[in-house]
Specification:
Mean pLDDT of chain B: 91
Order of helices and strands of chain A: EEEEEEEEEEEEE
Number of helices of chain B: 0
Strand content of chain B: over 45%
Largest interface: A-B, 32 and 28 residues
Radius of gyration of chain B: 14 Å
Structural class of chain A: mainly beta
Shape of chain B: globular
Oligomer: heterodimer
Helix content of chain A: under 10%
Distance between the termini of chain A: 30 Å
């Protein structure tokens, strides 16, 4: 158990429905990442937050995907109007980042949660 | 776009054999991490290598980061059935990049038979 939790672990939905997943990071971690992993592939980066700010979202797969981290703690990932191609494992990871100088960062390792397995029928 | 290629994709060996998994890129990474993933679970960190040429050992596992920080290898000595799983390498971008989105390789699925 890495300390990152995700809920639910499994979600089965019908095409066209909206789904929302939750991630609770390690408590002192300020960065939170979302990845998607399809069968037989490595995880693919989607978006990340530093505290409550979403610093990169251009990799979200379409405008049906959105993520929030309103209080800089837990995060939610929502997929609207799900499609069969959205079926995958959605992984959350967290890390601790410290700024050490102008434009320079020390980044800690990312710790992953157990994932949410989404099946769209 | 930074890409990481892992080889082999699949590996089936007998218990007690040695094996090496490779992770290669044309891009430079500030660090590289190795994860192991069980079916239906998230990746679990094995090691992080940061310095070019660095070698780290974790019991029977030896990890090496290439001198140019573009490639890495994982060597397992005397494999055991408990080593079965998906091994993933993941590279972090250059240190002065504020984002730290990991680029993952496609994974090596290892099966160790008794």
């Amino acid at each position: 158990d890495t300390g990152v939790s995700q809920d639910p672990r499994h979600k089965i939905t019908k095409r066209g429905q909206n789904v929302t997943f939750r991630c609770d990071p390690i408590s002192e971690h300020n960065r939170l990442y979302w990845y998607r992993q399809t069968l037989g592939q490595g995880p693919e980066f989607l978006t990340y937050f530093q505290n409550e700010a979403q610093l990169e979202k251009s990799r979200l797969l379409s405008d049906r995907f959105s993520a929030e981290r309103p209080k800089g703690s837990f995060s939610t990932l929502e997929i609207q109007r799900t499609e069969q191609g959205d079926s995958a494992m959605y992984l959350c990871a967290s890390s601790l980042v410290a700024v050490v100088g102008a434009g320079a960062y020390i980044t800690d390792t990312q710790y992953f949660g157990p994932g949410t397995r989404l099946t769209v029928l | 776009t930074q890409l990481l290629e892992q080889s082999p994709q699949f590996l089936s060996i007998q218990e007690g054999e040695n094996l090496t998994v490779y992770c290669n890129s044309s891009s430079v990474f500030s660090s590289l991490q190795w994860y192991r993933q069980e079916p239906g679970e998230g990746p679990v960190l094995l090691v992080t290598v940061v310095t070019g040429g660095e070698v780290k050992k974790l019991k029977r596992l030896t990890f090496q980061f290439g001198d140019a920080r573009k490639d890495s290898s994982l060597h397992i000595t005397a494999a055991q059935t408990g080593d079965t799983g998906l091994y993933l390498c993941a590279g972090a971008p250059r240190r002065n990049n504020a984002g730290n989105m990991l680029t993952f390789g496609g994974g090596t699925r290892l099966m160790v038979k008794p």
